[in-house]
Structure formats: structure tokens, C-alpha cells
Amino acid sequence: MADLILPEQDGVSRSISDTPPNHYTMKIQNFSQLAKNKIEPYHSNDFEAGGYKWKLLVYPNGNKDKGITDHISLYLAITQVESLLPGWEIRATFRLFLLDQNEDNYFILEDIAGKRFRRMKLEWGFNKFVPLTIFNDPEKGYLVNDTCMFGADIYITRERHTGKGENLSMIKDAISYKHTWNINNFSTLTNECLDSEPFSAGNQTWKMQIYPKGKGSESSNFISLYLALAEPEKLSPSTKIYAEFTLRILDRYYGCYDLHATVNHWFTAINCVRGWPKFVSVGYFNGQSARFLVKNTCSVEAEVTVHGITNAL
Predict the structure, then answer these.
(1) Residue range 229-248: mean pLDDT, rounded
(2) pLDDT in tens, 285-311
(3) Bridge partners of residue 305, in order along the sequence
(4) Which residues, including other chains, have CB under 8 Å from residue 100's CB and lie 6 or more apart?
(5) What is the pLDDT averaged over residues 194-218?
(6) Mode of pairing for the β-strands spanning 204-211 and 194-195
(7) Distance, CA of 310 to CA of 190 (rounded, Å)
């Protein structure tokens, strides 16, 4: 780690310590999958320090908006500011950590001068936290078996220790799962919404939801289609599931004119449904009913790939 110790400058000090972060720890497994899945930056869960809520932002290949391509970029951001009084301003010093897994100690960048967090400036940090050439070198100990660990300490007028953390586990070579749902008597359905039977994908339980006459008045001329977690109440508040999924209404006659759409989404206990309120117009669907309705049965398919899961550490 000696090659990372530089003289103090611009209110920033660089040091080594065997003392772990007090306020937050963020372990990331299969770190290379972040950039591969275009998760730049990765936002940690919120955590508390000094009576305020914060999160870490890590750019695995540098913050390109700042012209950085050869360093890890790491920032601290204040969150949940809606509850703060008008004109609020928080002055804080902070330390951001990177674990050397070979030596079992931490490389630390500390903002000793302090920064003003306010509504017009919610985040501060380090555009050039650590060079990628050093970070990616397994002999340096920062990225071992594609796993790394960051951390944060924040000091305001009065510090409060919470000791919480998270573990983001990205999934290398993630497997896609497909499930087909056959809906009988489709043209005579009266239910506003139908749920498919639950199915498993990526060690999670899912379901499809269809609104034959649209979800909401603005979508009344459309078929609405969604993917949802089947048991969101079983997730802890800190759990996030990053999934890529495609929903299809299958062409049951020709077999080559499926209606489909694809999106990536972080699913949580609260934000547990994602899809399209205007998946296909009722007029088009009915006009092509020979393709999509065979013996008045419509087939809907979900293809789900779970790329990463965040849990409490």
C-alpha cells in the first residue's frame, strides 16, 4: 500500500489503518459485473451517521462525466433531505475506506477540511480514489477473487455510531429463467387484474400480472403487463434484487411475431412491480387475434435474469 501514500494536499490526507469503518461497510462480490451490467454508479443503501442519512456511490471504471477513466471514483451523498428544514446545510468531514485483503488493513482518503452538504450540492468525494491499475492488481489486495470492500466514516458536530452495512453480490454468468402462462377464455375475462401462478427465477419467487383492459384510465385502450415479486413482504427493507427481464405475448399461430419488451430494474419490498401500462393497444391485439388467441387462449412468457442481490451485512 506504500505506493498509495501521497503527501496531504487540498485538504485531503491519505493514510493506512487497521481500524475498520465505524459507520458503514459495503462488500461487493463479482465486482466486474457492475460495469458489465452498466451499473455505473452503484448506489449503496442509505445508512445513518450524525443523525442524517447517507449513501456511497462507486463508479467501477471512473466517473466519465468528470473525465475519469483510469481510477475508481468514490463519493458520499446525503439522502432523505426532504424532511430537512428549508435552507439546511450540513458541514461534515469524512473518511472513505478500501480494504487491503492481503494485509488486513485499510487505505483511507480523508477530507480533513470538511465539505458543505446542501440542497445544491448533495455529494462530495474523490474523482480519483484509487488507480484502476493498482485496484485490479491482485497482489495489492484490493480486489481479490473479484471481491472488494469499501467503507465510510462521517463526522459532524456530534457523531453517532450505527454499525450497519450491506453486501452486494453480483452474479457472474447469471442464468435466465423462462415461465409461460396460458390464460384461458381471454376475450371474456372480467377481472381488472389477473396474476399468474408464482414461479422461481434466480432464487426468488415471481409472478406476472396482466390488466386486459389496462391499468388506470390513461391506459384503458391498452393491455398492461407487469412482472412482480410474489412475496415482497418476506424481503428485509435492505434487500435489493437487480433483474433484467423480458415479457412476451406469444404468437401462438405463426410462432414468430411475439410482442415483447425488456427492462432492468432494482426490485425491493416496496418497489416490487415493474412493467408497461401500455404494453400493446387493445385495437392491435384484437386485430391480430388470430396470432395471439388460439381457442381463446393467450400465452404470456416471462424471461428473468437476476444479476445481483444486496442484503444487510
Answers:
(1) 95
(2) 988 888 899 899 999 999 999 999 999
(3) 176, 244
(4) 1, 16, 106, 107, 140, 141, 142
(5) 96
(6) antiparallel
(7) 39
